[in-house]
């Protein structure tokens, strides 16, 4: 129903007084506050029907909002028509659109993106106009002011919240994007990846490289032996961490009540913001909006921002062609280097209205109850828990051997390794999506680094060194994995480049980092990031060492010459085949029966999977030198029935 469809103005006071002989149900059973009843009467005077108002009053009382907010969120009333009616009631001009070029930029302008109330609109030949967004709660106040000063009507006009927000975004766009790309580097330069090698890092890297080359030339056998021992130890440490994750009783912890009770958090719900960065995602726009529409959270308490690059006309057109509800807002990011996902997220952060904010990717299908679980977890957790990570589950494991192993990898990471790190209070390298944050603290630590290619891992480790902590929740987000080698390789190269950036950023002052994180967390960080990078880069080398030692032992009959060579051989066997076994076991152990059937026998391709991971790592090392801030875009396609498990 639309504004004016119900002309019955007989009053709403009877909503609390049911007809004689009828039981009290619905709105009639409630005792509404005077403010809600006042809003109801005003809305009746504007021609809105009693059934719609009564329903909005119920929701407003449950959600701690206003009747006006619930009506606009319901989609039953058009925002433009509604505020035009308020303008008519106040006898003021109505301005449905605001030219951003006529709005003067300034620091105060940013407040209008979160709380659109007033905006000064200039004109070259006429006095400026103050645009207001009136609300029912202040309607009497504004009416009294206009009656006292009638001349004020000449300099006032009414507009919609959407129009004011849009004008504020656009008028301050160049200032804001400049601040976005400079802020972290200028306020906390040691935490920014804008400079790849900081201070003496480049000098030390050069010294180490020259030393290795000189050693390889002058003492090749000793150099190879030393390299073999170092790689063996790093590999073994990495294997032990993942083996410990495999042995953790995560499933038992879940059964014993670790999941927060979603009904335990009582009272009105806060505004929850959702950020989705999109670039060349027109093919999945409809699927994304459909998934976000399913989120179980009051529409009046949702703030969904679809963050698009300003020159991505196809994605913007695809979104505008959809029937977006009032909780959606398309945010346009000006063209500015670097063109990365974290820059887009950081650009949108000042406009976030929610007490909590989560990040999704364009292809994501989050569980409808994920926001409620995250909110309950935040309410039950200490204040220093500012981030929650939901698990990512791959749904197209049947499609190819690549997607099957990707699904296996994600199951081990998000449902095995990260929960273990969470339970032990160790730093969490976050996933790129489905992280939930306390908004105030996220802003305080500087948001995302626009120059880091794995902004998720960087942010998770940065907040840990600053004294905050992360935990995991259990309601998943569903995704599809890349199914072709070029797409997979491009995505994985970007990830390795970001992990290299993250390690270099955190290792600018190693002693200070160890003091901030604590030595156990510092050691785990080295194993997870440095160990993972080193093991990926050196995987073919370790295989080469194993082949050589095997050949030596076969040549000698039954054993290699010397105890060191024998134990290195044993270490290589344990590291390679043990790593394969833990990778497979950790993933399969966290999967359900349906997921395991989808993977099937394709776990046998794990050795090939690890070799192409090594290729991606070497490509990333090259790109870090040649194009550190280039973003390898991963294309996405809508989910098809045959792509689901």
Features:
alpha/beta; Glyco_trans_2-like; 645 residues; single chain; transferase; seven-stranded mixed β-sheet; Spore Coat Polysaccharide Biosynthesis Protein SpsA, Chain A; four-stranded mixed β-sheet; Nucleotide-diphossugar_trans
- The name CATH uses for the topology of the largest domain is Spore Coat Polysaccharide Biosynthesis Protein SpsA, Chain A
Distance between the termini: 40 Å
- Whole-number average pLDDT? 88
For CATH, the homologous superfamily of the largest domain is named as Spore Coat Polysaccharide Biosynthesis Protein SpsA, Chain A
Q: What would you report as the Rg, rounded to the nearest angstrom?
A: 29 Å
Outline type:
elongated
Largest β sheet strand count, sense and barrel closure:
7 strands, mixed
- Strand order, largest beta sheet: 7-6-5-8-12-10-13
CATH class of the largest domain: Alpha Beta
Structural class assignment: alpha/beta
Transmembrane segments: 203-223, 229-251, 527-551, 563-588, 600-621
Protein name: Glycosyl transferase
Organism: Pararhizobium polonicum
Membrane topology: Multi-pass membrane protein
